[in-house]
Amino acid sequence: MSAATLPADLAAWARDGHPLPYALLADRPDGTVVRCGDTVAKAHAGDSDRDALAHRVRIAGAGALAGVLLPPLRTGSVNGRPASLWPYGLPVDPRRPEDAPWEAAGRLLAALHSTPLGALPGPVPPMRGPAKLARALRGLSRTHPAHTPAGSAPEAAAVRAAARTLPAWTRVEAAPPPGGVLCHGDLHLGQLVRYPAPEGPWLLIDVDDLGLGAPAWDLARPAAWYAAGILDAEAWPRFLDAYRGAGGPAAGPPGSDPWPQLDAAARALTVQTAARALVKAAEGRRGLDEVERLMVDACDRMASLPADLESAAPS
Amino acid sequence: MQCPKCHALMHTYNRNGLQIEQCSGCRGIFLDYGELEALTRLESQYTAQAPYGQAPPPPPPAPYPGQHAAPAPAWGAPQHGGHGRHGHHKGGFGRMLFSS
Protein backbone atom coordinates (compact mmCIF):
# COMPACT_ATOMS: atom_id res chain seq x y z
CA MET A 1 0.00 0.00 0.00
CA SER A 2 1.87 3.05 -1.20
CA ALA A 3 1.68 5.86 -3.68
CA ALA A 4 3.00 3.45 -6.32
CA THR A 5 0.12 1.01 -5.82
CA LEU A 6 -2.55 3.68 -5.41
CA PRO A 7 -3.95 3.47 -8.98
CA ALA A 8 -4.32 -0.35 -8.78
CA ASP A 9 -5.73 -0.16 -5.24
CA LEU A 10 -8.18 2.52 -6.35
CA ALA A 11 -9.31 0.34 -9.29
CA ALA A 12 -9.78 -2.64 -6.96
CA TRP A 13 -11.90 -0.46 -4.65
CA ALA A 14 -13.93 0.71 -7.65
CA ARG A 15 -14.74 -2.93 -8.52
CA ASP A 16 -15.35 -4.10 -4.95
CA GLY A 17 -12.17 -6.16 -5.00
CA HIS A 18 -12.82 -7.74 -8.41
CA PRO A 19 -10.23 -5.88 -10.44
CA LEU A 20 -10.63 -5.24 -14.14
CA PRO A 21 -8.11 -3.54 -16.38
CA TYR A 22 -8.05 0.16 -15.61
CA ALA A 23 -6.74 3.34 -17.25
CA LEU A 24 -4.83 5.92 -15.24
CA LEU A 25 -6.41 9.30 -16.14
CA ALA A 26 -4.49 11.56 -13.73
CA ASP A 27 -1.84 11.05 -11.04
CA ARG A 28 -0.99 14.27 -9.22
CA PRO A 29 -0.62 15.22 -5.56
CA ASP A 30 -4.10 16.80 -5.66
CA GLY A 31 -5.78 13.75 -7.14
CA THR A 32 -5.24 10.31 -8.64
CA VAL A 33 -8.00 9.26 -11.05
CA VAL A 34 -8.55 5.86 -12.71
CA ARG A 35 -11.19 4.74 -15.17
CA CYS A 36 -12.41 1.24 -14.59
CA GLY A 37 -15.07 0.14 -17.08
CA ASP A 38 -18.06 2.43 -16.77
CA THR A 39 -16.87 4.04 -13.53
CA VAL A 40 -14.18 6.55 -12.56
CA ALA A 41 -12.56 6.48 -9.12
CA LYS A 42 -10.70 9.41 -7.59
CA ALA A 43 -8.33 9.47 -4.63
CA HIS A 44 -8.52 13.06 -3.42
CA ALA A 45 -5.62 15.09 -2.04
CA GLY A 46 -4.22 13.67 1.18
CA ASP A 47 -4.46 17.07 2.86
CA SER A 48 -8.14 17.53 1.93
CA ASP A 49 -10.52 18.81 4.61
CA ARG A 50 -12.38 15.48 4.77
CA ASP A 51 -15.59 16.79 6.28
CA ALA A 52 -15.83 19.59 3.73
CA LEU A 53 -14.98 17.19 0.88
CA ALA A 54 -17.66 14.72 1.99
CA HIS A 55 -20.10 17.59 2.12
CA ARG A 56 -19.16 18.72 -1.39
CA VAL A 57 -19.71 15.20 -2.73
CA ARG A 58 -23.12 15.07 -1.01
CA ILE A 59 -24.02 18.38 -2.67
CA ALA A 60 -23.13 16.86 -6.07
CA GLY A 61 -25.75 14.20 -5.37
CA ALA A 62 -28.47 16.68 -4.36
CA GLY A 63 -31.64 16.51 -6.44
CA ALA A 64 -31.52 20.28 -6.95
CA LEU A 65 -28.36 19.81 -9.04
CA ALA A 66 -29.61 16.98 -11.28
CA GLY A 67 -28.65 17.88 -14.84
CA VAL A 68 -25.90 20.26 -13.63
CA LEU A 69 -23.36 18.17 -11.66
CA LEU A 70 -22.51 14.51 -12.25
CA PRO A 71 -23.84 12.67 -9.15
CA PRO A 72 -21.50 10.39 -7.17
CA LEU A 73 -21.95 6.60 -6.80
CA ARG A 74 -20.25 6.20 -3.42
CA THR A 75 -17.38 7.43 -1.24
CA GLY A 76 -14.77 5.66 0.85
CA SER A 77 -11.09 5.60 1.69
CA VAL A 78 -8.20 4.05 -0.26
CA ASN A 79 -4.68 3.84 1.20
CA GLY A 80 -5.61 6.52 3.72
CA ARG A 81 -6.83 8.91 1.04
CA PRO A 82 -10.47 9.99 0.76
CA ALA A 83 -11.94 8.37 -2.36
CA SER A 84 -15.06 8.81 -4.46
CA LEU A 85 -16.62 6.78 -7.26
CA TRP A 86 -18.45 8.30 -10.23
CA PRO A 87 -20.09 7.11 -13.42
CA TYR A 88 -17.87 7.48 -16.49
CA GLY A 89 -18.72 10.48 -18.68
CA LEU A 90 -17.09 11.35 -22.01
CA PRO A 91 -14.78 14.40 -21.66
CA VAL A 92 -13.84 17.03 -24.24
CA ASP A 93 -10.99 15.69 -26.37
CA PRO A 94 -7.91 17.64 -25.21
CA ARG A 95 -6.53 17.42 -28.76
CA ARG A 96 -9.64 19.18 -30.04
CA PRO A 97 -10.25 22.22 -27.80
CA GLU A 98 -12.14 23.76 -30.74
CA ASP A 99 -14.93 21.23 -29.98
CA ALA A 100 -15.39 22.68 -26.48
CA PRO A 101 -19.07 23.04 -25.59
CA TRP A 102 -18.92 26.72 -24.65
CA GLU A 103 -22.70 27.22 -24.71
CA ALA A 104 -23.29 24.21 -22.45
CA ALA A 105 -20.55 25.43 -20.09
CA GLY A 106 -22.23 28.84 -19.85
CA ARG A 107 -25.68 27.35 -19.25
CA LEU A 108 -24.42 24.87 -16.64
CA LEU A 109 -22.64 27.59 -14.67
CA ALA A 110 -25.74 29.81 -14.83
CA ALA A 111 -27.82 26.94 -13.40
CA LEU A 112 -25.20 26.18 -10.72
CA HIS A 113 -25.04 29.85 -9.67
CA SER A 114 -28.85 30.06 -9.54
CA THR A 115 -29.25 27.02 -7.24
CA PRO A 116 -31.30 27.94 -4.15
CA LEU A 117 -28.97 27.31 -1.22
CA GLY A 118 -31.90 26.10 0.86
CA ALA A 119 -32.30 23.15 -1.51
CA LEU A 120 -28.80 21.85 -0.66
CA PRO A 121 -27.53 19.83 2.28
CA GLY A 122 -26.11 22.65 4.37
CA PRO A 123 -24.11 24.46 5.49
CA VAL A 124 -22.34 24.86 2.13
CA PRO A 125 -18.52 25.09 2.55
CA PRO A 126 -16.61 28.01 1.01
CA MET A 127 -15.54 27.88 -2.65
CA ARG A 128 -11.80 27.17 -2.69
CA GLY A 129 -10.73 29.35 -5.64
CA PRO A 130 -9.13 32.14 -3.58
CA ALA A 131 -7.36 29.54 -1.38
CA LYS A 132 -5.81 28.08 -4.53
CA LEU A 133 -4.60 31.48 -5.70
CA ALA A 134 -2.98 31.98 -2.28
CA ARG A 135 -1.39 28.51 -2.62
CA ALA A 136 -0.09 29.34 -6.13
CA LEU A 137 1.51 32.53 -4.81
CA ARG A 138 3.13 30.60 -1.93
CA GLY A 139 4.46 28.14 -4.53
CA LEU A 140 5.93 31.03 -6.51
CA SER A 141 7.60 32.35 -3.33
CA ARG A 142 9.22 28.94 -2.82
CA THR A 143 10.60 28.45 -6.34
CA HIS A 144 11.33 32.14 -6.97
CA PRO A 145 12.13 33.65 -3.55
CA ALA A 146 12.17 37.45 -3.54
CA HIS A 147 15.68 38.99 -3.44
CA THR A 148 17.18 36.05 -5.36
CA PRO A 149 18.06 35.98 -9.06
CA ALA A 150 15.04 33.73 -9.79
CA GLY A 151 12.72 35.91 -7.74
CA SER A 152 13.81 39.15 -9.31
CA ALA A 153 13.69 37.85 -12.90
CA PRO A 154 11.28 40.01 -14.93
CA GLU A 155 8.64 37.25 -15.20
CA ALA A 156 8.46 36.57 -11.46
CA ALA A 157 8.55 40.31 -10.73
CA ALA A 158 5.62 40.90 -13.12
CA VAL A 159 3.50 38.20 -11.47
CA ARG A 160 4.28 39.54 -7.97
CA ALA A 161 3.47 43.09 -9.06
CA ALA A 162 0.18 42.00 -10.65
CA ALA A 163 -0.69 40.08 -7.46
CA ARG A 164 -0.30 43.32 -5.49
CA THR A 165 -3.06 44.91 -7.62
CA LEU A 166 -5.60 42.24 -6.55
CA PRO A 167 -8.31 42.85 -3.96
CA ALA A 168 -7.42 41.16 -0.65
CA TRP A 169 -10.43 38.77 -0.79
CA THR A 170 -9.05 37.08 -3.91
CA ARG A 171 -6.10 35.80 -1.79
CA VAL A 172 -8.19 34.92 1.30
CA GLU A 173 -6.80 37.98 3.10
CA ALA A 174 -10.27 39.45 3.57
CA ALA A 175 -13.85 38.20 3.64
CA PRO A 176 -15.31 37.53 0.18
CA PRO A 177 -17.87 39.99 -1.18
CA PRO A 178 -21.37 39.42 0.22
CA GLY A 179 -23.98 37.64 -1.85
CA GLY A 180 -22.05 34.42 -2.49
CA VAL A 181 -23.68 31.66 -4.54
CA LEU A 182 -22.86 28.01 -5.21
CA CYS A 183 -19.73 27.99 -7.41
CA HIS A 184 -17.68 25.24 -9.06
CA GLY A 185 -14.38 26.85 -8.08
CA ASP A 186 -12.09 25.29 -10.72
CA LEU A 187 -13.71 25.53 -14.13
CA HIS A 188 -11.68 24.48 -17.16
CA LEU A 189 -12.40 22.38 -20.22
CA GLY A 190 -11.48 19.16 -18.39
CA GLN A 191 -14.44 19.70 -16.04
CA LEU A 192 -17.16 18.90 -18.59
CA VAL A 193 -18.37 15.42 -19.55
CA ARG A 194 -21.24 13.94 -21.54
CA TYR A 195 -23.23 11.49 -19.46
CA PRO A 196 -24.36 8.91 -20.37
CA ALA A 197 -21.35 8.66 -22.70
CA PRO A 198 -21.04 9.39 -25.52
CA GLU A 199 -24.23 11.26 -26.48
CA GLY A 200 -25.77 12.35 -23.17
CA PRO A 201 -26.07 15.97 -22.06
CA TRP A 202 -23.02 17.86 -20.73
CA LEU A 203 -22.51 17.93 -16.96
CA LEU A 204 -19.93 19.51 -14.65
CA ILE A 205 -17.55 17.25 -12.72
CA ASP A 206 -14.93 17.59 -9.94
CA VAL A 207 -16.37 19.09 -6.78
CA ASP A 208 -13.13 19.41 -4.76
CA ASP A 209 -13.32 23.23 -4.87
CA LEU A 210 -17.13 23.59 -4.95
CA GLY A 211 -18.76 25.97 -2.50
CA LEU A 212 -20.11 29.36 -1.62
CA GLY A 213 -18.31 32.26 -3.28
CA ALA A 214 -18.19 34.96 -5.91
CA PRO A 215 -19.67 33.55 -9.14
CA ALA A 216 -17.32 35.66 -11.26
CA TRP A 217 -14.61 33.18 -10.23
CA ASP A 218 -16.16 30.48 -12.44
CA LEU A 219 -16.13 32.77 -15.50
CA ALA A 220 -12.71 34.12 -14.74
CA ARG A 221 -10.55 31.44 -16.32
CA PRO A 222 -12.14 31.75 -19.79
CA ALA A 223 -12.18 35.54 -19.24
CA ALA A 224 -8.46 35.47 -18.44
CA TRP A 225 -7.71 33.33 -21.52
CA TYR A 226 -9.72 35.72 -23.66
CA ALA A 227 -8.11 38.82 -22.20
CA ALA A 228 -4.61 37.37 -22.63
CA GLY A 229 -5.31 36.63 -26.30
CA ILE A 230 -5.20 32.85 -25.92
CA LEU A 231 -8.85 32.03 -26.56
CA ASP A 232 -10.52 32.14 -29.93
CA ALA A 233 -12.28 35.52 -30.19
CA GLU A 234 -15.56 33.74 -31.01
CA ALA A 235 -15.43 31.31 -28.08
CA TRP A 236 -15.65 33.99 -25.39
CA PRO A 237 -18.93 35.58 -26.56
CA ARG A 238 -20.43 32.12 -27.10
CA PHE A 239 -19.69 31.26 -23.46
CA LEU A 240 -20.63 34.65 -22.03
CA ASP A 241 -23.87 35.04 -24.01
CA ALA A 242 -25.02 31.52 -23.07
CA TYR A 243 -24.29 32.26 -19.39
CA ARG A 244 -26.13 35.58 -19.36
CA GLY A 245 -28.96 34.30 -21.55
CA ALA A 246 -29.56 31.50 -19.02
CA GLY A 247 -29.86 34.02 -16.19
CA GLY A 248 -26.34 33.71 -14.75
CA PRO A 249 -25.79 36.46 -12.16
CA ALA A 250 -22.02 37.10 -12.40
CA ALA A 251 -21.56 39.30 -15.45
CA GLY A 252 -24.41 41.79 -15.73
CA PRO A 253 -27.35 41.65 -18.14
CA PRO A 254 -26.96 40.42 -21.74
CA GLY A 255 -25.42 43.07 -23.96
CA SER A 256 -23.74 45.01 -21.14
CA ASP A 257 -19.98 45.26 -20.58
CA PRO A 258 -19.13 42.30 -18.32
CA TRP A 259 -15.70 43.53 -17.26
CA PRO A 260 -16.64 45.74 -14.31
CA GLN A 261 -17.97 42.56 -12.65
CA LEU A 262 -15.39 40.09 -13.97
CA ASP A 263 -12.22 42.16 -13.72
CA ALA A 264 -11.05 41.26 -10.19
CA ALA A 265 -11.57 37.52 -10.62
CA ALA A 266 -10.12 37.48 -14.16
CA ARG A 267 -7.00 39.26 -12.87
CA ALA A 268 -6.82 36.75 -10.02
CA LEU A 269 -6.95 33.74 -12.36
CA THR A 270 -4.41 35.37 -14.68
CA VAL A 271 -2.02 35.78 -11.75
CA GLN A 272 -2.70 32.23 -10.51
CA THR A 273 -2.12 30.72 -13.97
CA ALA A 274 1.08 32.71 -14.50
CA ALA A 275 2.39 31.84 -11.02
CA ARG A 276 1.75 28.12 -11.57
CA ALA A 277 3.33 28.31 -15.02
CA LEU A 278 6.53 29.78 -13.56
CA VAL A 279 6.62 27.08 -10.86
CA LYS A 280 6.03 24.27 -13.37
CA ALA A 281 8.64 25.66 -15.76
CA ALA A 282 11.18 25.91 -12.90
CA GLU A 283 10.41 22.34 -11.77
CA GLY A 284 10.76 21.08 -15.33
CA ARG A 285 13.94 23.14 -15.88
CA ARG A 286 12.43 24.64 -19.00
CA GLY A 287 11.35 28.05 -20.24
CA LEU A 288 7.74 29.22 -20.50
CA ASP A 289 5.77 28.00 -23.49
CA GLU A 290 3.97 30.47 -25.74
CA VAL A 291 0.62 30.54 -23.91
CA GLU A 292 2.28 30.68 -20.50
CA ARG A 293 4.24 33.70 -21.69
CA LEU A 294 1.00 35.40 -22.78
CA MET A 295 -0.34 35.05 -19.23
CA VAL A 296 2.84 36.60 -17.80
CA ASP A 297 2.57 39.40 -20.38
CA ALA A 298 -0.97 40.09 -19.14
CA CYS A 299 0.40 40.32 -15.57
CA ASP A 300 2.98 42.79 -16.81
CA ARG A 301 0.29 45.03 -18.34
CA MET A 302 -1.84 44.72 -15.20
CA ALA A 303 1.01 45.90 -13.01
CA SER A 304 1.73 48.90 -15.25
CA LEU A 305 -1.82 50.27 -15.15
CA PRO A 306 -2.39 53.18 -12.80
CA ALA A 307 -4.26 52.31 -9.63
CA ASP A 308 -7.90 53.12 -9.13
CA LEU A 309 -8.72 56.49 -7.64
CA GLU A 310 -10.74 54.41 -5.27
CA SER A 311 -9.57 55.33 -1.78
CA ALA A 312 -12.95 57.02 -1.36
CA ALA A 313 -16.06 55.18 -2.43
CA PRO A 314 -17.56 56.36 -5.72
CA SER A 315 -20.08 59.11 -5.11
CA MET B 1 -21.94 57.42 -17.47
CA GLN B 2 -20.08 55.14 -19.84
CA CYS B 3 -16.42 55.44 -20.79
CA PRO B 4 -16.14 57.00 -24.26
CA LYS B 5 -13.17 54.75 -25.00
CA CYS B 6 -14.13 51.27 -23.78
CA HIS B 7 -17.78 51.75 -22.72
CA ALA B 8 -17.31 50.42 -19.19
CA LEU B 9 -19.04 52.21 -16.32
CA MET B 10 -17.34 55.40 -15.05
CA HIS B 11 -17.26 56.22 -11.35
CA THR B 12 -17.24 59.75 -9.98
CA TYR B 13 -14.66 60.75 -7.36
CA ASN B 14 -14.32 64.03 -5.52
CA ARG B 15 -10.73 65.26 -5.25
CA ASN B 16 -10.09 68.68 -3.73
CA GLY B 17 -13.55 69.81 -4.73
CA LEU B 18 -13.21 68.58 -8.32
CA GLN B 19 -15.50 65.90 -9.69
CA ILE B 20 -13.36 63.42 -11.63
CA GLU B 21 -14.77 60.48 -13.60
CA GLN B 22 -12.65 57.35 -13.78
CA CYS B 23 -13.43 54.31 -15.92
CA SER B 24 -13.83 51.05 -14.01
CA GLY B 25 -12.46 49.14 -17.01
CA CYS B 26 -9.47 50.95 -18.53
CA ARG B 27 -8.87 53.36 -15.60
CA GLY B 28 -9.03 56.31 -18.00
CA ILE B 29 -10.01 59.68 -16.52
CA PHE B 30 -12.58 62.08 -17.92
CA LEU B 31 -12.30 65.77 -17.09
CA ASP B 32 -15.14 68.21 -17.64
CA TYR B 33 -14.57 71.61 -19.24
CA GLY B 34 -12.25 73.68 -17.06
CA GLU B 35 -11.25 70.84 -14.76
CA LEU B 36 -7.78 70.41 -16.24
CA GLU B 37 -7.07 74.09 -15.61
CA ALA B 38 -8.46 73.77 -12.08
CA LEU B 39 -6.21 70.75 -11.46
CA THR B 40 -3.18 72.62 -12.81
CA ARG B 41 -3.99 75.52 -10.50
CA LEU B 42 -4.29 73.17 -7.51
CA GLU B 43 -1.03 71.50 -8.44
CA SER B 44 0.88 74.79 -8.57
CA GLN B 45 -0.58 75.79 -5.20
CA TYR B 46 0.43 72.44 -3.80
CA THR B 47 3.99 72.54 -5.06
CA ALA B 48 4.35 76.14 -3.84
CA GLN B 49 3.34 75.04 -0.34
CA ALA B 50 5.20 71.79 0.12
CA PRO B 51 8.17 69.86 -1.15
CA TYR B 52 7.06 68.03 -4.23
CA GLY B 53 5.69 64.79 -2.93
CA GLN B 54 2.58 63.17 -4.18
CA ALA B 55 2.10 63.69 -7.88
CA PRO B 56 -1.36 63.90 -9.41
CA PRO B 57 -2.48 60.66 -11.06
CA PRO B 58 -0.56 60.00 -14.26
CA PRO B 59 -2.45 60.10 -17.54
CA PRO B 60 -4.00 56.86 -18.72
CA PRO B 61 -1.41 54.46 -20.13
CA ALA B 62 -1.03 52.58 -23.38
CA PRO B 63 -3.52 53.37 -26.11
CA TYR B 64 -6.56 51.17 -25.90
CA PRO B 65 -6.92 48.98 -28.97
CA GLY B 66 -9.85 49.91 -31.14
CA GLN B 67 -12.33 47.80 -33.10
CA HIS B 68 -13.30 45.28 -30.45
CA ALA B 69 -15.34 42.26 -31.32
CA ALA B 70 -16.31 42.32 -27.62
CA PRO B 71 -15.16 44.50 -24.73
CA ALA B 72 -11.89 43.49 -23.07
CA PRO B 73 -10.09 44.81 -19.98
CA ALA B 74 -7.34 47.44 -20.13
CA TRP B 75 -4.73 44.81 -19.27
CA GLY B 76 -5.86 42.60 -22.15
CA ALA B 77 -3.69 41.64 -25.10
CA PRO B 78 -3.50 44.20 -27.89
CA GLN B 79 -4.62 41.72 -30.58
CA HIS B 80 -8.27 41.78 -29.50
CA GLY B 81 -10.76 42.30 -32.25
CA GLY B 82 -9.03 39.96 -34.63
CA HIS B 83 -9.07 36.21 -34.46
CA GLY B 84 -7.76 34.53 -31.38
CA ARG B 85 -4.57 32.59 -31.75
CA HIS B 86 -6.53 29.39 -31.63
CA GLY B 87 -4.71 26.59 -33.32
CA HIS B 88 -1.38 28.37 -33.37
CA HIS B 89 -0.22 27.42 -29.92
CA LYS B 90 0.60 23.75 -30.42
CA GLY B 91 0.56 21.79 -27.16
CA GLY B 92 0.58 24.67 -24.71
CA PHE B 93 -2.87 25.88 -25.74
CA GLY B 94 -4.62 22.60 -25.06
CA ARG B 95 -2.65 22.00 -21.85
CA MET B 96 -3.67 25.32 -20.36
CA LEU B 97 -7.36 24.99 -21.27
CA PHE B 98 -7.60 21.57 -19.67
CA SER B 99 -5.77 22.07 -16.38
CA SER B 100 -6.20 23.76 -13.03
Please explain how this structure is put together:
With 315 residues, chain A is α+β, with helices and mostly antiparallel strands. Chain A is 39% helix and 14% strand. In chain A, a hairpin with a 2-residue loop joins β1 and β2 (31-36). In chain A, 46% of the residues are buried. Residues 310-315 of chain A have low confidence and may be disordered. With 100 residues, chain B is α+β, with helices and mostly antiparallel strands. Chain B has a domain at 1-49: Ubiquitin-like (UB roll) (Roll), CATH 3.10.20.860. Helix content of chain B is 23%, strand content 14%. Chain B has a 3-stranded antiparallel sheet with strand order 1-2-3. In chain B, β2 and β3 (29-30) form a beta hairpin. Mean pLDDT of chain B is 68; it is low at 59-68. Chains A and B meet through α6, α7, α8 and α9 of A and β1, β2 and α2 of B.
